[in-house]
Amino acid sequence: MRGQEWGGHNELSGVVHGPSVQAAVVHGDVHIRTGEAAEQQLPWQLPPAVRLTDRTAEVERLEHHRTLAAQRAHPALATVSGLGGVGKTALALAWLHGLRRDFPGGQLYADLCAQAPTGPVDPAHVLGSFLRGLGVPPQQVPEGVADRSALYRSLTADRRIVVLLDDAATAAQVRPLLPGGSNVTLVTSRRRMSGLALEGGYQVHLEPLAPEAAVELLAATLADDRVATQPDDARALVGLCAGLPLAVRVAGARLAARPQRRITTMVRALTAEHGRLDALAIDGDHGVRAALDLSYQGLPAEAARLYRLLGVHPGTEFGGGVAGAVLGSAGGGSGGDPGPGGARADPDGARADPEGAWVDPGKLLDVLHDANLLIDIGEDRYRFHDLVRLHAMGKAAEDESAAERAAVFRRIADHYLATATRAERAIDPRHPLRERSYGPGPVVTEDFGDGTRAALDWLERELPNLMAVIRRARRTGERDISWQLADALGPFFLRRKHYDAWHTSHAEGLAAARELGDGPAECRMLTSGGQGELGRGDNARALEMFEEAARLFADAGDELGYARTSNYRGLAHQRAGQLDEAAELFEWAAVELPRCGDLRAGGLARLNAADVEFTRGRLPRAAEGAVEARTTLLAVDDSYNAARAATLLGRIRLGDGRPDEAERWLSGALAVLREVAAHYETARALDALGEVAELRGQRELAQGHYQEALDLYVGVNRPGPAEGVRERLRRLDEGGATSTDEGGDASGSGVHGSGDRGSGDRGSGDRG
User: What is the pTM for the complete model shown?
Assistant: First the structure.
């Protein structure tokens, strides 16, 4: 958007997948819906099924239980328990994937991480993920387990879905995650979940494979004639593996990599290994421990080192770039600029081993995958089986010094911080970036692609790992990582609305900044965290945080920081309906921020002040402020917030009876706001355009604008303006008309104002 030129063009380039519409100028009420689009919104979260050997009886028992439950119109809840590596998840996936035709409403999956080093997953986090998977916008996810569970049950009451809760710790962890309606839930756990009996839980306990079935699995893994020609040795080998499918596959993978080796060689090695495994804490799984130790000993030196160093990683899955980070090389990622203060990794993507050879981390990951020590989950991403992760952690503790493990964690943390900082810049280039501090390096960044969407998607995918790093970094003394990583996530949280993670990360970051005695960092955590509290609806806590930051800035003599907090405090007062206090703070900030050198933040403060005047019905003053704000924002190349100012001008012109001028402002703003997917601001422009169309008697056009605005308001959890639009639609349906003079707010949404942070795409004021 430049000046008042609101032109458009009709160009389409690149490859288009699926239904598409290309048009230059469209007038009227246009709705486009496809069956494929609806199908894509269903959650299909189950991991791929894997080979299942000799579990026919268990599948039949589960299916019989489901059939009986369906006949009684009851939900089907079953639990599968057994040793780690016995095949619980394989059984669950094989059965549930087979139910897809009967349960077309989707599949939900959660790893409850009973064995994770950071502890089991909080049910509240799982419910948040499930609700988003079911189509609930992040802004509409309630607070607290009870409210989330209630909404989850309501949404699933009339669906036909299956739910897999993998690796559960306790029945208490599972109960809030049970769906409503006559759906199917399967829980896997090492423990027998007898506590779910009151919920109708049907228990299936998996024993290790019978010798014949284990031999069959070994033969399938080897894919040659050694089992057929050496049957006695094959039976001895699976006996030493205790019939556990994981152990059989690991041992088979080692043999498959050595097609000339006889099975008896593996039998002798595994027999000798049994006496030296007691120190490895994988309770009861002696066969797995033995097989893993042998596989580890058979790895090339660099692959073995990567394996044990990956055990330092705090999350449950990781991308290929992490391998380069733990080894201190760029393989699997990118050695690009990590940001201020960072170092580059080797640009050729390899590192020198002690003998001088060059090693590619990607090839080492292939070695680990081929040895069945890593699970490839697609898109250059991997995870450990929980037993294998414990084994890798044990080997790291055994073979690496505490100092080396700490250095590896720092490289992992630096990898995430550098890449998150790069993503932060892509999302909001204007976000003031404080210099990051990195360890001795090298710092390996990951190549997530170009543009805002790619940056947001990378942060979304890595959010569990980023949160795990934030928590561990503070506890291990790497407090700079904790607050800086929380800071880098700020623009992401503004867009994607993960309020739980926003609250947690900034609470950790604030504590870390205080422990460091870093006043500026503390202020950043207070202002950014306060914006999250505004989003959560806790205006009082947000104001408290902003005021604390203001005191710190004042004590430090930081005039710019103090002026920015005035804008934030104004937003908190505006949200609370305290317009006099908000107006005073906005007016002061609009003068002081440019004086302190921040023209953009001054323009935003002027826009917020104009919005308050509009809410009060003072249209001339509101228009004057909006024009001034838009001019400033265009001058600093902030087209998004300039479009917000144009929306306000359109609403003002509609309010003082100039619909043609209103339409010009609103249509131009709408084009910009759609482009950046600013859903709340888009809804406000559409809402006002609906008023323009209605005033002109264009009934169908008005209904189309209102309906799209309503969908967007609901999506970003803005019930006030949504109800106003519903009322106008009802009146149109009844043949009536709505008034265009509603106390100066023709759109009916003035109480939310341009200062409302509903779009989540940029702040209404620059971050402190």
Answer: 0.70
